[in-house]
Amino acid sequence: MPRRRDQELLSAAAKIRLQQLALNTLVTENVFKVPVHLAIGHELIAATAAQWMPEDKFFLPHRNIHFNLASGIDFRKVVAELQLSEHGVNGGRSGSMNLASQFNGIVLSSSILGGHLGISVGYAHAQRFLSSSSLRLTWCVLGDGAIEEGTFYESLLLAKSLRLPIIFCIEDNGWSLATKIEDRRSEIKVSKLAKSLGVGFTKIGAEAGITKFSYKLAIARDDALRSSRPVLVYHPVSTLGSYEVPFGDGSRVVNYHSGPARNLTLKDFLEGRDSSAEDQISKFIRSNNFHQERDQFIADLLEVIHEVL
Questions:
Q1: pTM above 0.70, yes or no
Q2: DSSP 47-88
Q3: How far apart are CA 13 and CA 259, in angstroms?
Q4: pLDDT digits (tens, 9 = 90+) for 172-217
């Protein structure tokens, strides 16, 4: 049985997974008026970082749904926002790619690739003059695509020069839209970039196990605060929902960028047909450690789905 704290984090990640499966059910039914970028498989980093919300402030990219759900935003309000309803989190004005709730610690989500990096650095700098707490940290979450942008280097350099406590959390799923990164560009060794600038660096993969995962993220946060410097957190992650398409004389595996993920609806999960069945979060959901919360949580999600459909 997982330790109490580990079980709490896995439980939080499991709930985000189930909420995303429910959203994917609605995406599959084409009920939303905006493109939705799901992050099925990314839940653990969001659930772990959420323990420092809302004191820490977060700046997110277009694929932000997992952090928004982790922050505790009401699920019905998320669904309403994706329907561009006035009852949504942001009154139907943000859709999916700009979804944010400042009351929950999420200052901004940017639909522009890398558009939030410089803003997060400016915000971190402003906190030196506006915040009475030395324990508040700024997080800038970005994908592997944003590290190709010039603003990534510029923001990292400025943050180091100003000695700002900020975490740049890179979620690398290895995909550029539906193309593998390795098929499109050469490798970017962010560890060497971090070393060249004298900023902190840590690589955190889910395969390390929940205890080590949460510990390493906490150490990275403490490093940024204690040393007053930016820290790069490099997080390899699998965006679940890949599928095969015809290609040449055979086929190739691609990953969806937005829209529905194949075989990952809540119905697929309940019927044992979901393609994520072997990852640690799905295993935890099916375990006895989660069963007391699971049934009622799923019932509430099914009620929302029924209301929308």
A1: yes
A2: HHHGGGTTTSEEEE-S--HHHHHHTT--HHHHHHHHTT-TTS
A3: 21
A4: 998 887 788 888 889 999 999 999 999 999 999 877 788 899 999 9
Cis peptide upstream of residue 54 (ω within 30 degrees of 0) = yes
Give the span between the Cα atoms of 41 and 238, in whole angstroms: 6
CB neighbours of residue 122 within 10 Å: 16
Structure tokens at 266: 């809540």
Strands 200-203 and 231-236: parallel
Looking at domain 4-308, its CATH superfamily turns out to be Thiamin diphosphate (ThDP)-binding fold, Pyr/PP domains (3.40.50.970)
> What pairing do the DSSP bridges indicate for beta strands 175-176 and 243-247?
unpaired
| pLDDT tens-place string over residues 47-80 | 999 999 999 999 999 999 999 999 999 999 999 9
Domain range summary for the chain, segments of one domain joined by +? 4-308
> Which residue shows structure tokens 């009622």?
296
The Cα 69–Cα 66 span in angstroms is 5
* Residue found by looking up tokens 């994706």 in the block: 82
